[in-house]
TrEMBL record:
One cellular component (GO) term of this entry: cytosol
SUPFAM superfamilies per UniProt: FucI/AraA C-terminal domain-like (SSF50443), FucI/AraA N-terminal and middle domains (SSF53743)
Enzyme Commission code(s) on record: 5.3.1.4
Ranges for domain L-arabinose isomerase N-terminal: 8-174
MF-aspect GO terms: L-arabinose isomerase activity; manganese ion binding
Domain L-arabinose isomerase central residues, every copy: 177-324
Family membership noted in the UniProt record: Belongs to the arabinose isomerase family.
Record field: catalytic activity: beta-L-arabinopyranose = L-ribulose
Metal-binding among keywords: yes
Pathway note: Carbohydrate degradation; L-arabinose degradation via L-ribulose; D-xylulose 5-phosphate from L-arabinose (bacterial route): step 1/3
Gene3D superfamilies per record: 3.40.50.10940
Protein's recorded name: L-arabinose isomerase
Length: 500
């Protein structure tokens, strides 16, 4: 079973009737072999399913419409084995509402120099068949990923997998439901936004609930269920002996178990895969969920603090894209700086950092929470795993959305943090904090982000293109002056793209 279960990527090969039945039989056989080879590769995370060779406008339109209506079809890989006149593709590509990747490959890797003849040339002519097809995609102004190289090469298969993962994330976004418990943090701007516009562009829905709706489910959790989950906590995490002997701390851990069970039941019943809450709006709850939220994120749920539904949705989407990959994904906040020889950012939040990013086994602790509510709350404490990472934020600019990416290098803290009662990650933004911080601020990037070590910059760009929204990247090549010019040029482009 592939990582994404029954979800499929369709492999559609273009040709034409001009070549006759024998050539077309070979085209179909080669296409099936490529699809089977890709499915059989351990680098490919989903089934690649060959479709009948398309040779006419009607056949192309039919397969595109069929893809649109097949819930298991997440996207298409399109390849021209021979020459496939591109006017045939216009109706199909205009009707297609699933993402597609253009694979510029050929069946054989090397030319048989001593035997090559015109029959071989007519069969293996992706070199110009794909250029004809590429023209019509550009003429239709369609954003798409183009992967070039032999289909058996590791690099090519990795690029295919990177793209199909984004297609899985895009499919998730189309059906994603975000539960919003309470409202936005008062007076905060960047976590607000147009939910209707977000649903138009990204597909996901945002549903608001009063705290009483959730509290009723949490209160119904039995002692037996809560105690069973506490036992799981004690077997999974490091817990100090003094905690086990402290009746109050154990009660706070059990309280967290009730919150986790209640929230998960609420989310499962409503089909929600992401959620938000707000420390300013906890009426009816026993406190701000700490470890409960951390563990739900580790199970794959998206989360956004203080009502940040855009980050909650993006956290879930990135978790889907990175499913089965090394490197975790978490809700994150740039919290405070370490300014010195190498400027660094200490990322954290009040409680809710996902343990999938941990460098070591998380430690279960109970500590006083003093923001919004003064209460002892159980939480998991750890530091982030060193290595490449990125912060991703989605902001609503009023007339459009922008996704901002900053590539990072996560490092081990130079000293222990014995008095910091929350999980954290320490990173050095690329190219440095001076440039990255200025560029992030010029782009309007939020103080919340999706922190991930499981996706690539190109994948987030692919996702933005599928959504038809702007993406800007802050990396080792960024210079503030040229970055500001890029923002101005993008503003003009996306304004014109929307029409009058």
């Amino acid at each position: 079973m592939k990582i994404y279960g029954d979800k499929e990527i369709w492999f559609v090969t273009g040709s034409q009737h001009l070549y006759g039945p024998k050539v077309l039989e070979q085209v179909a056989a080669n296409s099936q072999q490529i699809a089977d080879g890709l499915t059989g590769s351990d680098k490919i995370s989903a089934k690649i399913v060959a479709q009948p060779t398309v040779k006419s406008p009607d056949e192309i339109l039919e397969v595109c419409q069929r893809a649109n209506n097949d819930s298991n079809c997440v996207g298409l890989i399109l390849w021209m084995h021979t020459f496939s006149p591109a006017k045939m593709w216009i109706a199909g590509l205009k009707a297609l509402n699933k993402p597609y990747m253009h694979l510029h490959t050929q069946f054989n890797a090397e030319l048989p120099w001593a035997e090559i003849n015109m029959d071989y040339m007519n069969l293996h002519q992706s070199a110009h068949g794909d250029r004809e097809f590429g023209y019509i995609g550009t003429r239709l102004r369609q954003d798409r990923r183009v992967v070039v190289g032999h289909w058996q090469q590791d690099r090519v298969q990795q690029e295919i997998d990177d793209w199909l993962r984004v297609a899985m994330g895009w499919a998730e976004s189309q059906t994603l439901k975000v539960a919003r418990f309470g409202d936005n943090m008062r007076q905060v701007a960047v976590t607000e936004g147009d939910k209707v516009a977000a649903q138009i562009h990204f597909g996901y829905e945002v549903h608001a609930f009063g705290l009483g709706d959730l509290a009723e489910v949490v209160d119904a959790v039995s002692d037996e269920d809560a105690n069973a989950l506490v036992d799981e906590y004690l077997q999974t995490y490091e817990v100090a002996e003094e905690v086990l002997k402290d009746e109050h701390q154990m009660a706070m851990i059990k309280n967290e178990a009730r919150l986790e069970i209640g929230m998960e039941r609420f989310l499962e019943k409503g089909g929600f895969k992401a959620f938000t809450n707000n420390f300013e709006n906890l009426t009816g709850l026993t406190g701000l969920p700490g470890m409960a939220t951390q563990r739900l994120m580790a199970k794959g749920y998206g989360y956004g603090g203080e009502g940040d539904w855009k980050t909650a949705a993006m956290t879930r989407i990135v978790k889907v894209i990175s499913q089965g990959k090394e490197g975790g994904t978490s809700f994150m906040e740039d919290y405070t700086y370490n300014l010195g020889t190498r400027d660094q950012v200490l990322g954290a939040h009040m409680l809710e950092i996902c343990p999938t990013i941990a460098a070591q086994k998380p430690r279960l602790e109970v500590a006083l929470h003093t923001i919004g509510i003064r209460k002892d709350i159980a939480r998991l404490k750890f530091t982030g795993k060193p290595g490449p990472a990125m912060n991703i934020t989605t902001v609503d600019l009023g007339t459009r959305f922008r996704i901002v990416v900053n590539e990072l290098d996560t490092v081990a803290p130079p000293a222990d943090l014995p008095k910091l009662p929350v999980a954290s990650a320490l990173w050095e933004p690329r190219p440095n904090l001076g440039i990255a911080g200025a560029a992030w601020i010029h782009a309007g990037g939020a103080h919340h982000s999706v922190y991930s070590q499981g996706v690539t910059t190109e994948q987030i760009i692919d996702f933005a293109e599928m959504a038809g929204v702007e993406a800007v990247v802050i990396d080792n090549d960024t210079k503030v002056r040229t970055f500001k010019d890029e923002l101005r040029q993008n503003a003009a482009y996306y304004h014109l793209k929307q029409g009058v």
